[in-house]
Amino acid sequence: xxxxxxxxxxxxxxxxxxxxxxxxxxxxxxxxxxxxxxxxxxxxxxxxxxxxxxxxxxxxxxxxxxxxxxxxxxxxxxxxxxxxxxxxxxxxxxxxxxxxxxxxxxxxxxxxxxxxxxxxxxxxxxxxxxxxxxxxxxxxxxxxxxxxxxxxxxxxxxxxxxxxxxxxxxxxxxxxxxxxxxxxxxxxxxxxxxxxxxxxxxxxxxxxxxxxxxxxxxxxxxxxxxxxxxxxxxxxxxxxxxxxxxxxxxxxxxxxxxxxxxxxxxxxx
Length: 269
Fold this sequence. Notes:
The protein has 269 residues and is mostly beta strands. It has a domain at 101-260. 9% of the residues lie in helices and 17% in strands. It contains one helix and eight strands. The protein has one helix at 15-37, and strands at residues 104-108, 114-117, 122-126, 145-148, 156-163, 192-197, 216-222, 244-251. Strands 2-1-8-5 form a four-stranded antiparallel β-sheet, with no helix packed on it. The radius of gyration is 57 Å and the shape is rod-shaped. The N and C termini lie far apart (167 Å). This is Collagen-like protein. Residues 64-101 are annotated as: Disordered.
């Protein structure tokens, strides 16, 4: 509380004294007054510059959300050194052994005889020749060739193809180059051929004695018009029209058993 000097007691203060006293009051308490009463409206727009802000005092929370925009992505840093190679992994277990490779094959000539093979094939009945049992060929087997593979063929495939024979005139037209005009005019080069395993219930039945088993397959060569080939006498007027063909057995032949060779009879002394 401001005390009035005794010299002033009972006297009316003059105007200059009042002014100087007020100035003193403002000087003593004006700073606190101003700090307590100056607000956002008392500051002129754009009046506060960077120069008036203490460095390092503005934080992210002091900025509006719209002002918190990330800067551009900086350049990629240099690649670090390559790491050492990891240890080799453990070897995997050995795989299961595969089935025996394919490769059983044979070549049959127009007389129904095997002229080359990988081994183990025997002819049961060829075209209309007497079969291996000594009995006549059944009518349903005429024109076909029945071959024993000496292994069950349930897990095998049978592939056949006609082999050309351009040194034998099969239709007596003296054309052996395969260029004769007309249907089935080049039997030395052409024809039809099919094959299947025997003994398939409801699908395939093979007529010759002992042939209706899974060890036997039948090959059916035909002329290009589907007609049966015939056994001629080999003359120019009556040629043999049977087909020469290849056979390949594919699939698993691990169950193949080589046939036992026949033991020749020993003549009596």
